[in-house]
Amino acid sequence: MASHIVGYPRMGPKRELKFALESFWDKKSSAEDLKKVAADLRSSIWKQMSGAGIKYIPSNTFSYYDQVLDTTSMLGAVPPRYNWTGGEIGYDTYFSMARGNASVPAMEMTKWFDTNYHFIVPELGPDVKFSYASHKAVDEFKEAKALGVDTVPVLIGPVSYLLLSKPAKGVEKTFSLLSLLPKIIPIYKEVISELKAAGASWIQFDEPTLVLDLDSQQLQAFTAAYADLESTLSGLNVLIETYFADLTPEAYKTLIGLKGVTAYGLDLVRGTQTTDLVKKDFPKGKYLFAGVVDGRNIWANDLASSLSTLQALEAVVGKDKLVVSTSCSLLHTAVDLVNETKLDDEIKSWLAFAAQKVVEVNALAKALAGQKDEAFFSSNAAAQASRKSSPRVTNAAVQKAADALKGSDHRRATNVSARLDAQQKKLNLPILPTTTIGSFPQTVELRRVRREFKANKISEDDYIKAIKEEIKKVVNLQEELDIDVLVHGEPERNDMVEYFGEQLSGFAFTVNGWVQSYGSRCVKPPIIYGDVSRPKAMTVFWSSTAQSMTKRPMKGMLTGPVTILNWSFVRNDQPRFETCYQIALAIKDEVEDLEKAGINVIQIDEAALREGLPLRKSEHAFYLKWAVHSFRITNCGVKDTTQIHTHMCYSNFNDIIHSIIDMDADVITIENSRSDEKLLSVFREGVKYGAGIGPGVYDIHSPRIPSTEEIADRINKMLAVLETNILWVNPDCGLKTRKYEEVKPALNNMVAAAKQLRTKLASAK
């Protein structure tokens, strides 16, 4: 019985790629140094999977930024502003598209389906001249082959690539991206031909958009694309991989009808109803790559349950046509549990990271083939039973409090217009008030202080003194820049979710459980294993300290319940909304303690609210109801004069704007500039927004410093669709990933632009 892995984490067990990328970007190392680190990581991954007995090992899933940008490079679809003149795309062009450069901004970045991973959105139009401009897929296949590992090269499928793209600036929004299929298929044919010539026997096309709500024209595009590729694919085994949700009956019918396709990869973890489609109708002689090992969470697989599922499928598909696989790429989970030295043995026994999931896949394949490892299965069953019965998982008082929430919608008693009036009397802010989103640059010295405190190398008094000095520096800088509503810069926090999770019950933490978010950016999601509560105040001391340093309003900075949920590895033994309500109650306690401490502006970030939106429209309403309700729970008890902010970033918000309004926040700051001001279109189309709103005026994920004129132009575009008295001026997101030499001039230009427009508006009266 065969086994398969959809994809594998790229960063390395100790984030080796992250540090190599940042060293290269900072010009501290060469391109050759970066290539060597990448090659060593790839070699290690391939040999690990080969050694574990995996038959179908992926190649071309490694990336310096993301796999969609790799495909853009393969197709030569470089926007003209990067002045690419043809030939093989090099690092300069590649990273300029991803990060921008001194003269031009980066391409838009957005979430990869409903994950916390991001991709660079292709910008396409009728005039794009496609050409085969990156041979990465072929090069990496040959590289693995030279190491003695036969791999399955993976490409983003042509239809999903186009459906994930957007019309370039200046192209009509109604332009049919699928009309470009005939232009990109010839490039795919070149790649396929080269892979065949290099000795590939299998090829994997990732077509994850098949799980979305697609119309008949979009489904027909899949049929047309693979019919066109059929003759080129002849002689290859072709796997079409889908993941993250169920297929609709129509999409499933399209999938199994594709020409020249040998195998179908299905997510049987999140695609809970897909098994029924397989049992009703599976084409004879085809392979099923059954994704029964969860690629998006860190819980050990219930091997007995998965084996039962596989045995039922084997009866339908045939013994020699069933392949055990992961539900999706393991990119979305941590790398290796072996590196976790501080997790206690009980919790550790409940977990499986990427390396352990590879072993699980192979163990299931061997069990199906009659070579069941009884000791491994027995140990797994014991861990499953331990988790179900452990007293540390349940807290009756928390469950009772969460159950009691269901009788109210938890709205503040006064409408937002009246609240804003009361808040303005107290805060006395100018029109177009300026603020930032929360974090300031995390310097090497600051990271050293936190690291040494955690390692007990410095005392708590020394730690507090160092953090207070950093806060004072950030406060002084903001006053010097003349920012209106200040932040303390979050110097005590390495990560916005991890920081809160460390102080809440029901959470566990890893030492090296890093997961890539985009480029070199990694996050370390906490593990929610049990009921959640707040034993004591979490941020009040630092917020009060910062407020004592200034007469200007100081924001209390919290992460909202939906974001904590969506950016954690969440327990899978109860519905997600129940866990979210528990977190909401904990944050509510913190909000009310901040208010009592004299903090008049409190920001509750819900950066990941849109990210958690189910992929199928039929499931949207239920998710948005409990997610928005969870946010309202956190602040339903505060006074009218306490201003509640929230922040969202790097997703498409236009389709949930009414739910955002229903959150009933006083002010929302929201990513806007990197997505080419897409957000503003919803207001042009007539949506009325009465609360305060700060669409971001510059992209903080690029080192580029925007000019005062550029920012003023952005604000003017906002003023064309939003009332002057509700508009705030702020960056797209927090500043932690930037350097002070970038932050100071950018914020200086932002404040100058706001003042320039205040003067202009005053003279126009």
UniProtKB/TrEMBL annotation:
Residues at which L-methionine binds: I437, G438, S439, E490, D605
Residues that bind Zn(2+) 2: H658, D662
Cofactor note: Binds 2 Zn(2+) ions per subunit.
Residues given in the record as Zn(2+) 1 binding sites: H647, C649, E671, C733
Residues annotated as domain Cobalamin-independent methionine synthase MetE N-terminal: 3-316
GO function terms (MF aspect): 5-methyltetrahydropteroyltriglutamate-homocysteine S-methyltransferase activity; methionine synthase activity; zinc ion binding
Domain Cobalamin-independent methionine synthase MetE C-terminal/archaeal: 432-755
The EC number(s) this enzyme carries: 2.1.1.14
Active site, UniProt feature: H701 (proton donor)
GO biological process, one term: methylation
Catalytic activity, as annotated: 5-methyltetrahydropteroyltri-L-glutamate + L-homocysteine = tetrahydropteroyltri-L-glutamate + L-methionine
Binding site for 5-methyltetrahydropteroyltri-L-glutamate: K18, N116, R521, C522, W567
Entry superkingdom: Eukaryota
Assigned keywords, A-Z: Amino-acid biosynthesis, Metal-binding, Methionine biosynthesis, Methyltransferase, Transferase, Zinc
Broadest EC class assigned to this enzyme: transferase
Pathway of action: Amino-acid biosynthesis; L-methionine biosynthesis via de novo pathway; L-methionine from L-homocysteine (MetE route): step 1/1
InterPro entries: Cbl-indep_Met_Synth_N, Cobalamin-indep_Met_synthase, Met_Synth_C/arc, UROD/MetE-like_sf
Cofactor: Zn(2+)
PANTHER family tied to this protein: 5-METHYLTETRAHYDROPTEROYLTRIGLUTAMATE--HOMOCYSTEINE METHYLTRANSFERASE
Free-text function comment from the UniProt entry: Catalyzes the transfer of a methyl group from 5-methyltetrahydrofolate to homocysteine resulting in methionine formation.
Family named by the database record: Belongs to the vitamin-B12 independent methionine synthase family.
Protein name (database record): 5-methyltetrahydropteroyltriglutamate--homocysteine S-methyltransferase
